[in-house]
């Protein structure tokens, strides 16, 4: 179905090709997972499938890409639209019309299909993706998971043989991600669609894949094979695979179910040994960094937060979890005074954050927003650091020194837009930390981060907490929570439904439990590192 | 046409509603008779209340109603304070001040006469009526629904308007995000500097979004090679635009007082025929098809026809200069009801019955747009 023959792609102005000599044969009806570090050329590979690279982006293509026998060099994306459907990273940015039904029909209108065919396919697609109740809803009013399903539906109506998705679940909560993945699996099984997707969250997708393509970042050749082959020695792997390697299971399990069946001996070995309890190390002091007391926040007549009372102290890493739209981001922005409270109290460092001037606020609380790029506006890393020193009124060079600790490889002259997702996050973190706020808030920090960068972030967060910072993360990433959080707060419809130590909250929930916990239940191990330590004891 | 099709619940073609409403507006523009104007508003209100959808735009008639009242109040107030007094019935003697000639010799204050107030009221009422007709069209058929039925020759134009309409709310979110970011970095969020500082990121964001959107549209087959050449397509669009402009001039000449009928009618006929030629040509050549287009059946013809008839009855009345279309305010005369426009107005009420009822569950259930922080 898809064949890459000696493909090399070089962007204009670049000296090195992004991809060199790629050879790839993907048969019909496979679900292919493309993995690699950020900036390794995954997106380029995906966009080459429908000809957006090089027709839309410019650059030169050497070699040949054939999709169902059609050469992308002579067929621009619009001529391949009946064959390849592409869902971009942010589905909202690709929507052309304003309601669900019309968005589903748009592609077919462009292809000039007959009205009765269009009508039938729209109805079929609405059922296939569970969108029937939403058919007349404006796209702006949909949740992130619903938008992703509409985006998939809108390309499916053209009956493409190939579906290309760029990080379809990275912005979704675990439940919505499962919905989307179930829909994709149905397409592969029932309709024989070939699906190619890039995704960092391997723990969510690896069990669905028929083939894995690894795009290395160091210029090594692109390799591909079955998931168990590729996961055996891949530098990036989900926790289930890492646990399998640690315990020496053969064949390497990829799903929780297989791993549980192999895990009997390990569970026995670990019986009687206790997982280390998450304790707050470092200086601990009972004065709260942030307090909310019966906090209620309204948007119009919708309550984004209801009666939320909680406290964050020094040395804590608190994870805020819950569905998209449960009020996580609202709680964070209320803590920095971006939202007015409708009733109740918020205090950060003992003061109402809305009463404090911005220049003063940065010294008591810092927020890294969902898209860290929002914070960046200068044209080079160096000038970004200089203006940060000025904003925070600290010694010149403070931010640069922090950045050198967090991300030593980032160069002064680089434009912030050319940094990878992870580097941008670390630059924003350095800017926020320059003012030395005791309380640090992060909104979805691991969205779009690859495993190595995530590991680095985990280390940084632990060190900050050990130095007495209080940290609050809003996140969907259950593995991150299992790694770092000392406490978990679960929000649903603006209310706190659970608040307690990580082990007790996370283990009790099938949705928020990390893979290791699911495999070793009823024992309460959360991460591979904990299991390794537990095995070493004996 | 069988009765069952007439009665079947469905949406009326938006263009039919607009033709009907513009016909009413054209009628209103030809009269200063307050009785006729109030009747026109009543006709619009009756039809709107009978066939208004339960959607956000359905409520816009109330907004236009309030706007109309404001227009009348403003018009009368302007007359009170600035207008030249005429007539003999002084309601309130007040001292006046005539500004020197280098200030255009305008007058401030002065006696308030019944005649001048009456004239201002009639004038305001006429403007308010026209506004309410537009409001009626707006609440019966949303502008974006109308946009979806633009002819294929104007398709590109329609797409750009839709894209612009979805971009505007996103721009507002972008401005909000940038302001947030400034606060998080400890910078002031108000003042000239803050606005200048946030303009760049917002524009950059908008540019990036449009590039993404262009890529998405390209991947979904926008602008696929058709059987028709680009030159031919352009000719079609130009032809349609010329036709539309000619039709507008013709319609204006027909409606506006004082222009010869000999100019208006031929212009209108030529304009409309050029439009029809262009639309059929591009429809024949179009590669793209349309999903669930609104059909044009008997109810549409009846509704649009009612609008055309009411406009014609007023225009013809003015042309024949029948008594009662204009109500003189100096000296004040009691308005009378002329027969011909009255018949036109009765016909204009028929859409309340001839237009199909709406489907039970109104198709747009606008949930409150959630603000995600």
Whole-number radius of gyration of chain A?
A: 24 Å
**Rg of chain B, alpha carbons:** 26 Å
Mean pLDDT of chain B: 79
Quaternary structure type: heterodimer
CATH class of the largest domain in chain A: Alpha Beta
The number of distinct structural domains of chain A comes to 3
CATH topology of the largest domain in chain A: Rossmann fold
- Low-confidence blocks of residues of chain B: 361-373
Instruction: Provide the structure class of chain A.
Output: alpha/beta
Biggest interface: chains and residue counts? Answer: A-B, 81 and 57 residues
User: Quick one: biggest sheet of chain A?
Assistant: 6 strands, mixed
Topology of chain B as a string of helices (H) and strands (E): HHHHEEEEHHHHHHHHH
List strands and helices in order, with pairings:
The complex is a heterodimer of chains A (538) and B (373).
Chain A: E1 2-10, E2 19-26, E3 31-35, H1 42-49, H2 52-55, E4 60-67, E5 70-71, E6 84-87, H3 100-111, H4 115-128, H5 144-156, E7 162-166, H6 174-191, E8 194-198, H7 202-205, E9 211-214, E10 223-225, H8 227-232, H9 239-247, H10 256-262, H11 264-270, E11 288-299, E12 302-313, E13 317-321, H12 328-335, E14 343-348, H13 358-361, E15 365-368, H14 381-391, H15 398-406, H16 421-433, E16 439-443, H17 451-466, E17 470-474, H18 478-484, E18 487-492, E19 495-501, H19 502-507, H20 515-520, H21 528-537
Parallel strand pairs in A: 3-8, 3-9, 6-7, 7-8, 13-17, 13-18, 15-16, 16-17
Antiparallel strand pairs in A: 1-2, 1-4, 4-5, 9-10, 11-12, 11-14, 18-19
Chain B: H1 3-7, H2 14-29, H3 34-51, H4 60-82, E1 90-92, E2 96-98, E3 107-109, E4 112-113, H5 114-140, H6 143-148, H7 155-184, H8 192-219, H9 230-255, H10 261-285, H11 298-319, H12 339-348, H13 351-354
Antiparallel strand pairs in B: 1-4, 2-3
Helix pairs in contact in B: 2-3, 2-5, 2-11, 3-5, 3-12, 4-5, 7-8, 9-10, 11-12
